Amino acid sequence: MGTHLILQPTLLLGTEKNMTNFTTMSGFILMSFSGNPEIEILHASVFLVLYLVALTGNILIITTTSIDDSLHSPMYFFLKHLSFLDLCYITVTVPRSICNSFVHSGNISLWECILQCFAFTVCGCAETAMLTVMSYDRYVAICLPLRYEVIMDVDTCVHGILAVWISGVISGVMHTAATFSIHFCGANIIHQFFCDIPQLLKLSCSNDYISELGVIGFLSLVGLLCFISIGLSYTHIFSTVLRIPSAEGRAKAFSTCLPHLCVVILFISTGVFEFVKPPSNSPTVLDFFLTVLYTVVPPTLNPMIYSLRNKAMKASLRKVFKERKAYQIC
């Protein structure tokens, strides 16, 4: 019942007309998945389960890689930061959407929308950079094993993490500044469950979004370079692994690479949907589903991929649970 009301013109009170017929937005209305309250509750419940799974899995990886000395290597150092990024990435959008669905309200203030866009862009771009750094780490480990400890020393790892976050923040500032420098016209309804930049651009007046398209083009080029770098790293990795004479050696090499490769494929393939699918004036269930694929699915499945495919991670998780159980008995 409440979700039907958000579409009524009488509720579009977050706008103020000025002298130039532009609209100065003081807030937006996030479109719900459905006008049916029961379906809204179902959607919120599913999102809540997925969020708790992502939260549990990523916290387990962060905890395990922090306390287990056998996992104090560059590979797991980067994995720990990837899990932290995943936590931030899903927390930016999902909890707010869950809350909106339970209270049947999609109102979000201008500053909340700006902050959400900034944080979402930072996390998305930083995750792309992180996966690129991790692919380089696997390349050095497998293709240059004798020089691994020299190349991937503490300074290199720290500089890699700093580069990841700096690139994410710069991308977030550019994207957010370009998006909210435009004038918004008409209804302040965003056809998405979070402040999605493509949907915001649809509210722009005339050609005000040209500067944002330039930013999108630049960041797309950077993303393409990251993708090419990851592809080249894995081309060399597979070429080297296939030359390993022993089957055991090949299996060990693949066991450390396949989890990362699965995460890369999952994140990139789902992220492509953001650029492939055109924003729709009348979004369908498929549109929302594709959005969920690149906002919710990767951070939820990443911990499962690493814990199920990585023998060292599974052994460490079992060790942590056994120690915790023994501590509780004592």
Task: Walk me through the structure.
With 330 residues, this protein is mainly α. The protein has one domain (2-7, 25-329): Rhopdopsin 7-helix transmembrane proteins (Up-down Bundle), CATH 1.20.1070. 72% of the residues lie in helices and 5% in strands. The chain is built from twelve helices and five strands. It has helices spanning 2-5, 37-67, 74-103, 110-143, 148-151, 154-179, 197-201, 210-241, 247-276, 285-295, 297-309, 311-329; strands at residues 15-17, 23-25, 27-30, 107-109, 189-190. The strands form two sheets. Strands 4-3-5 form a three-stranded mixed β-sheet. The protein has a two-stranded antiparallel ribbon with strand order 1-2. Strand 1 and strand 2 (23-25) form a beta hairpin. Helix 4 runs antiparallel to helix 6 and helix 4 (110-143) packs parallel to helix 8. The longest helix is centred in the middle third of the chain and has 34 residues, at 110-143. It is globular and about 65 Å long. The N and C termini lie far apart (53 Å). The model is unreliable at 1-23 (pLDDT under 50). It comes from Orycteropus afer afer. It is a multi-pass membrane protein.
Structure summary:
It is built from 12 helices and 5 strands. The chain has 330 residues and is mainly alpha-helical.
